[in-house]
Amino acid sequence: MRVNFKVLVPSVLIVVSTMLTACGTNSGTKANSSAAPVPTVNKDPASFTILNNDGGEAYAKQAKKDDIFYTEMSKLFSDYVGAPTTINYEFIPAAEFSQQVSVRFVSKDIPEVIATPSISDPGHPTAVENGVFLQLNDLIDKYGPNLKKKIPDNIWRNPRVSKDGKIYAIPKLLTPLNPKAFLIRKDWLEKLGMKQPETVDEFLAFFEAVKTKDPNGNGKNDEIGYFVRPDLGFSMAFFAPFDVTPGVWHFENNQFIPDIINPRMKDAIKLYKLMYDKGYINKDFVTSKTADWTNAIINETVATWSHDLRNVPASWSADKFVSKKAVIDLLPGIKNAKGQLSLGFSDLSIAKVHAILKDTKHPERFVQFMDWTYSDDPKKVNFFTFGINGRNFTESGNNITWDANSEANTKEKAFFQTMINPAGDTRTDQKVLQRMGNFDAKILEKGVGYTEKNLTENPAINMDLPDVMKTSPELTNAPGSLFLDMFAKTVTGKEDIDVAFDKYVAEWKKRGGEQAIKYATDWYTKNVKK
Q1: Contact present, 78 and 57 (Cβ < 8 Å)
Q2: Which end of the chain has a smaller Cβ tally under 10 Å, C or N?
Q3: pTM (2 decimals)?
Q4: Please, which residues bridge with residue 181 across strands?
C-alpha cells in the first residue's frame, strides 16, 4: 500500500550528524511487568511496510520482502494481538537516506511507516506542517500502555518526536540509553606498572610511557595514547575535563551558547594540541578514515580509544586483536576542575523514530505492534534476543541454547537484535553476553554503571536545532563546519589557537550565530531556566 499526500521539499538538503548517547534495556525488565495487550476492535488483516536505512548491516542490505524474520515477527505479533498482521521492512542505504527519502516523498512512493532520525529530518522537513504524519496522542493513550510506561516523558517532549505537544512518532531508544565507552589496554597499564589514570596529568604520563616504552613489544615506538578521527567521532573524551563538548550548549553570561564557541573550548583544544605535539595522538587525524582507526587498534598501536558501548563485545574481544591476547577495560572518565570523573554529557537516547503516514489503514494496529515490542512478552523477548526458535536457538523447558558464533547467528544476529527491533537493541543484554563466550559481561555492566554516574545532563537535550543552523551546517560541528576547520588548523599548528579561536567565534556569529544564540536563549529561558 502506498499513501498519497502533499509535502514540500527544499531544493537544498542539509544533513547534520549528531552523536547520540544515558542506560537501560528494553528486555531487562521483570517478568510480567508489562501491560497486557489492548483488545483489537478490528480483526481485519493489516499490513505495514517500514521504510528504514540499512545501517550498513550486511543482512539488511539483502533482505527481501518475504524474509523469514519478517514472517516470524508477524506471526508472533498476530498471535499476541489476536488479529492477522504483516510487518515488513524496506531498507535503503544509510548514507543516502535523507536524499532518497526526499525523492520518494516527492514521487509519493512512501509506505505506511517511516523509521527516520526525526519528524523534521532533511528528507521530509515539512511533513508535520503539511499533515503527512498522523498525530498519535490518542492512539498511544488507548493502545500503547507499554509505550507510556517505558518511554521517559522527556523523550516524548523532544522535537524529534513531537511538536507543540502533539506526538507524531514513536521512538526507538538506544540500549543502553547512554552507550558511551572509554576503553584502555589494561594489559599495557599493568605491563608499565602504572595505576589507572584519572586526571589529565596522569593520562599524559601514561601516554608518555606508551610512546617510549614499547608496551606492544614489537621493538618499535609506534604506539599512541589516543586515536582521533577527523570529524571527532569517537574522539571527544578529552573535552570532558573542561566540561564542554561539541554539540552541547551552556548558559553563560545570560546567554545560551553552544560549547563550540565557549571560552572553555579553547582550553580543551589546547590539550588536543599538546597531545598532538607530543605524539600522543595520531598525526594523520585530519585525513584518517574509520578503517585506519580500526586497524590501528586491532594492530595494537593504540592505548585508549572511545567507542559505542553496544559495539564493545563484538569489536574488542581478545580474538579481534593481532596478538589474540589483548586485555581491555573500560574507564570511568577523566577528572574535571571539580575533581569529578566525567565521560562528558548525556545526549538524547533516541536511535530513530517511527512515523505513521496519515492515510494508513488500521494505524492503531501499528501502535499495538510498537507497544508489543516494548512489552515483556516472552516470545517477543526471545525473538529479538535469540532469533527464530529452531533456526537460531533451541528451547527445552526454561533452557535456551544459543550459539552466537554459529554460521546462522554470525550472519543474522545483528539483524534481529537491532535492525528490525523497533524498541531497542539486545546486543548488550546480559542473556546475550553470557552466551557470547569470548567477552566478560561484567565489563559491560561496569560501563553502564559509569554512564549512570559520570555523564552530566545536557541542558539542550530537548532543544530543536535553531533554523539558521539547519540551513547553514557550517555553524554546527558537522563535517565541513567552521569549528572542525578551526580545530584541525590549530591542533596541527597551522594557526595560533588564541588568535584563530577568537577569529572563528566572530565569524560564526557573523554568519548567523547571533541569531542562533537568540533562539536558544529564548528557548532556555522559557523551558529550562526557572
Answers
A1: no
A2: C
A3: 0.82
A4: 307
Query: Can you give the C-alpha Rg of the chain in angstroms?
Result: 24
pLDDT tens per residue, range 489-518: 999 999 999 999 999 999 999 999 999 999
Model pLDDT for residues 40-95, shown as the tens digit of each residue: 768 899 999 999 999 999 999 999 999 999 999 999 999 999 999 999 999 999 98
- According to the CATH classification, is domain 180-345+459-527 in 3.40.190.10? yes
- pLDDT reported for residue 529: 77
For residues 490 and 496, what is the distance between their CA atoms, to the nearest angstrom?
6
Q: Are 64 and 215 in contact (CB under 8 A)?
A: no
Closest CA to 100 of 221, 4, 15: 15
Strand order in the sheet with 328-330: 224-226, 302-308, 180-185, 328-330
Measured CA to CA, the distance from residue 472 to residue 509 in angstroms comes to: 12
Architecture of domain 46-177+349-427: 3-Layer(aba) Sandwich (3.40)
Concatenate the DSSP letters of all residues of 149-216 into one string: HHS-HHHHTSTTTEETTEE--EEEEPSSSS-EEEEEEHHHHHHTT-PPP-SHHHHHHHHHHHHHS-TT
Structure confidence at residue 26 (pLDDT): 41
DSSP states of 336-404? -TTS-EE-EE----EEEEEEEBTT-S-HHHHHHHHHHHTS--HHHHHHHHH-SBTTTEEEETTEEEE-T
How many residues are listed for the chain in this entry? 530
Buried b (16+ CB within 10 A) or exposed e, 480-505: ebbbbebbbbbbeeebebeebbeebb
Domain 46-177+349-427 matches domain 180-345+459-527 at the CATH topology level: yes
Q: Is 507 helix (H, G, I), strand (E, B) or coil?
A: helix
| pLDDT tens digits along 361-379 | 999 999 999 999 999 999 9
Q: Are 475 and 469 in contact (CB under 8 A)?
A: yes
- Residue ranges per domain, the chain? 46-177+349-427, 180-345+459-527
